[in-house]
Every structure is written in structure tokens, then in C-alpha cells.
Task: structure prediction
Amino acid sequence: MIPYLFISGFLGAGKTTLLNNLLNRYAHLKIGVIVNDFGELAVDNTLINKEGVAGEILELRAGQIFCSCLSGRFIESVLAYDTISPDLLLVECSGLAKPATLSDIVQVIDSKAPDRFDYAGMIALIDGTSYTVLEQSLLVISEQIEAGDMLLISKTDQLEQGQYQDLKTHLEERYPDKTILTVPKDRIDHDLVEMLKTKQKAFSNMDNGKHAGWGERGRPKTFTLIPGPMQMKEIVDTLQPFQGRWYRLKGTLKTADNGLRYFDGVQGNVKVKESTGAEELGLVVITHDSQLEKVLKEAFGIKPVLQPVTLPQHNPNIS
Result:
């Protein structure tokens, strides 16, 4: 049977970094990969170490795989690996994944391909630097944690000892039945797949009704920015006044002075690094700020697209 393992975690928690670490750790295995991007551009695919990946990386975008809009395509993507027969199938979820329907998806896969795929569990990644601020306002975070069979706290090297201990104690008290590990400097020191063999199917204890909908703030908004040619520093300086108004900003732009550069914004900062192999240019922005798209496009001098106006047809019978 082909084990399939989910990696969840809110926007910017480090899912792609974890995925690359798992690809390195299990390099002796033939591994399949499915990536889900909430925006319309396939951004994370360009950041994945493709050495050793079995077949092509399958991409699902413009939504999250546990929603009816993509769940059918996701199930088809999993079943497509039947002929490739990888030793392990890794699924990187969107940062806005709502896995309350995970049990239904597992049942469908079992019914369509009996004895071919084995649910190996879900790793829920928790950003140690932002969790305490976001957990109260974003229900999707607790939903991912409840569906997770194992919790990994990332970016612990950026926390003071007291901050880290307070967070770990809080999670242990709130989720006493879950294994909680830390990921200092994005390094994996454990055989997570082996550990998950005794920690599976946390989704069976979830109250699906509790997680219906997106909460009071509604579904986050996603849009794409494609500025004209600008120097790298100009782009960063233009984004700077708006930091903190998005949950995530990421993507590749062709700069006027440094060629292709990957821009990665998480909450209050933007990092820039060299980009290779990007097939699509643009910045995907995810936010609850209803005005952010308008003001960002104005800041970059991006003119709104005018919609064609359809004039009413003349009716000769009407005078």
C-alpha cells in the first residue's frame, strides 16, 4: 500500500521547508508530491527540491483541497499515483486548509482504490513566532491542529526561552493527546513517518459542525500583483508601508537590476532571495484587509482593468 502523509500549517509556518527536509531525510525512497496553493499562481512548486521526486509534482491551486471546489481533483491526483507506486506520497496543504472533511476524503480514496493507499497521518506545523497572536482570530488554525496527528513548532530558534516554554505548555494543556515536537532552524531530527504509525486518524475525533465556515471575518481574500519593471529595492520599499496588513505575500518578479527574485512576506516582513525556474511571475497576496488590493495596486501604479460595457440593443419596435 502507498502511504500518504499531509503537511498542514498556517501561512508562512514553513511547510515547504519541512517538505524539502522530508525529501532529504527519505531520499532513499521513491516519493510522490502533491502541492496545494490557495492563490491562482503555483508558487511553492518552484521552491521544492525535485531530486528524487517520483513523477511530476502535481499542483492544485485557487482553493484548498478539503473544499468541494478542489476535493474531487485532489482525490484524482492521489489515485493517479497508483501506477507510479511511490514508497511515500507527501501532500503539502494550503496554509488555509480546513481539514474538517478529511475523514470523507480518506473514505472516498479507500472506496475507489481498496488496499492501494494508506492514510499515514497529518503533521500540523505551528509558527512559534505568530501562533499566540493569530489563534484567537483565525479558527482555521485550531482546525488544522485538531486534525493533526503530530504538532511541530517551527522557528523556535527565534523565540526567547520563556516564550517557547509558555507556548509549549499552552499546547500541551490544550492538546494533551498529541505528540508535540520542535523544529529548531528547520531541521528534522526524527523519523516522523515511523512515529506517526502509532498516532493516526485524529480527524475521527473532530466535530465537523464546529468548524463549518470561516468564522466572523469570513474567507480570506487572495489576489495577484504583477508590477511593471522596478529595481529590487524599489519593490521592497513600496511594500514596506503595508507590512502587517497581509497574512502572506509570495512570488517571483523580474527586477530591473537583479533579474528574477523571490519575494516572501510573512506578517510584518519581506525577505528576498534569488529565484530559479519560476514559470509564472507575480506576487500572491492573502489577507482579510478588504482595501489592501486597491492601495497596493495604486502604490505600484497598476491601473485597474476596465471592464467592457455592453450597450443595450436597439429595438425598432420601441419609439
